[in-house]
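Task: complex structure prediction.
Instruction: return structure tokens for all chains below.
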Amino acid sequence: QVQLQQCGAELVKPGTPVKMSCKVSGYTFTSYVISWIKQTTGQGLEWIGYIYPESGSTGYNEKFKGKATLTVDKSSNTAFMQLSSLAAGDSAVYYCARETTEALFDYWGQGVMVTVSS
Amino acid sequence: IQLTQSPSLLSASVGDRVTLSCKGSQNINNYLAWYQQKLGEAPKLLIYNTNSLQTGIPSRFSGSGSGTDYTLTISSLQPEDVATYFCYQYNNGLTFGSGTKLEIK
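Output:
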């Protein structure tokens, strides 16, 4: 079965980066785009960007350009998202999701809760 | 495209017919989906392309709409339907609505 596995939680200090992973199983990793989505109580759900594992090509929501960097490791079927220079507003749950050709998110990871605090 | 969902909170009884609304700031051209998120879980795709039911989703869920106005209907509310429901448009950019929280009365 399709699974996207994310680690549970990160506590990070303001101004530091964080890198989170999304390990995929149950389908051919290079056949689907992986998107990342931010969820906060205040802003709701926001699409951050996508990466196509086959080529490494990426696309970003303008709001997250310079904040998020998406990469993959095809040898381990894992997608990564690095968030730079974290601030309080970056505290959120971050999901990875498999994106279909129609831009639908049909399978999701369980999410990573990132808390930015000194 | 911005999506406005109403109501933000809905309380209904088991067996009720429930209707949730999603309005876009521009024409969405039927590229509208609905997600269900239960407490502590990731969102789950229910409906796509306005009215297509995702595999495995109960038939009590249905979608309709056109242009800027879309609706998710639950024909007979069940206790397991308690969740927050988000609409999502993929016609122009990718954006989510702010959600409707559905409770049992």
